[in-house]
Amino acid sequence: MVKHIVLWKLKEYAQGADKKANAIKMKKMLESLHGVVPGAYKMEVGINYNPGGYDIVLYSEFNDHDALESYQIHSEYLRVAEFIQGITSDRAVADYMV
C-alpha cells in the first residue's frame, strides 16, 4: 500500500474567487476523484481551520506505486490539478509505502 499526503496553501484571491470559496471548490473536486481513478481506494480531503498552516490537506491510499502513478496521469485528475495549480501558492507532498 502507498499513502499519498499533499498539503496546499491557497492564494488569497484567484480564479475570480476568494480563498474560502476556492477551498470549498477544491475539496469537492478532489473528493469527486474517489472511485473514479482505479487503485485509489481511500481519499480524505480537509480544510484546515488552524491559522498559519497549510489550507488544504489530501490523504489518500493506493494499492501500489503503479496505482499512484496511474492516478497522476488520469484525465479527471489532470482536470482537477489544472484548477489547483491556478489557486495555490505552495505545496508539500509525501508518499510512502507501508
Structural features, described:
- The chain is of the alpha+beta class and 98 residues long.
- The chain has a single domain (2-97), classed as Alpha-Beta Plaits.
- The protein is 34% helix and 39% strand.
- It has three helices and six strands.
- The strands form two sheets. It has a four-stranded antiparallel sheet with strand order 4-5-1-6.
- The protein is globular, with a radius of gyration of 13 Å.
- The model has no long low-confidence stretch (mean pLDDT 95).
Estimate the global geometry from the Cα principal axes.
globular
Query: What's the structural domain tally?
Result: 1
Residues in β-strands, percent: 35-45%
The CATH topology comes to Alpha-Beta Plaits
Indicate the CATH class. Answer: Alpha Beta
- Arrangement of strands in the largest sheet: 4-5-1-6
